[in-house]
Amino acid sequence: MKIQALYTSQAIYYDLLYSGKEYKKESQQIKKIITKYKKSKGNDLLDCACGTGNHLQYFIDDFNCIGTDLNPAVLEIAREKLPTIEFIEADMSDLNLNRKFDVITCLYSSIGYITKKDRVESAIRAFSKHLKPGGILIVEPWLTKEMYNVDDPVMNIYNGDDIKIARLYTLELKNDNISHFEQHILVAERGKKVKHFVDLHELAMFPMSDFISWFEKYDMYPTLLPQGLFDDRGLLIGVKRGA
Predict the structure, then answer these.
(1) What is the pTM of this model?
(2) pLDDT digits over 176-188, tens only?
(3) Complete domains list, the chain, with CATH
(4) Which residues of the chain have pLDDT under 50?
(5) In three state form, how does the secondary structure of the chain look?
(6) pLDDT score for 3
């Protein structure tokens, strides 16, 4: 079984499977939030867990962008798509770039992949350390336990001319607060045999109150926006004190 294969050994299929995601629309929403909440004067933006750069491609005209991710395979794709952006392999829990930003984003529930509470707090502390006074942190959290529908079946497809991809899985619960799902992915590509691989994902479900308390602890004014970028998982906003 391959853990998070879509971010590593099978990253070539990531953009195809998520081709229906409205990255442009989401990025426009983020820009509106930045305009409303940011108090610092600069335009330096850090996208943590940037993946293949699908949000960054819509930030690049308005901000001086840097992207970080833990997975070299997705960073390689991002560098090919966006050669003018600096991409750095880094773990958000141990982030230490020796520079500060006006905007830090951590989108598409990437923070959920940190399954230990002390490591999540370390990530929030690191984000705050990298913010300028008045700068804004935008975190798209993972689902809470109340929102997570155990046993729900899920299917996604990509239907191209030369490649077809189907992904199916059911939502499971592990250790009370860990969402667990084994994605079975079939790839039918012209001129090749059908490929099947299993992609395991585990994300932690921590209460929003924990995030709010961490934002406050590490010198940020917190705001929870109930409406998220594409569903009701919400957005967490932190503005660094001292502006």
Answers:
(1) 0.96
(2) 899 999 999 999 9
(3) 11-143+206-240 (3.40.50.150), 153-204 (2.20.130.10)
(4) 1
(5) CEECHHHCCCHHHHHHHCCCCCHHHHHHHHHHHHHHHCCCCCCEEEEECCCCCCCHHHHCCCCEEEEEECCHHHHHHHHHHCCCCEEEECCHHHCCCCCCEEEEEECCCHHHHCCCHHHHHHHHHHHHHCEEEEEEEEECCCCCCCCCCCCCEEEEEEECCCEEEEEEEECEEECCCEEEEEEEEEEEECCCCCEEEEEEEEEECCCHHHHHHHHHHCCEEEEEECCCCCCCCCEEEEEECCC
(6) 78
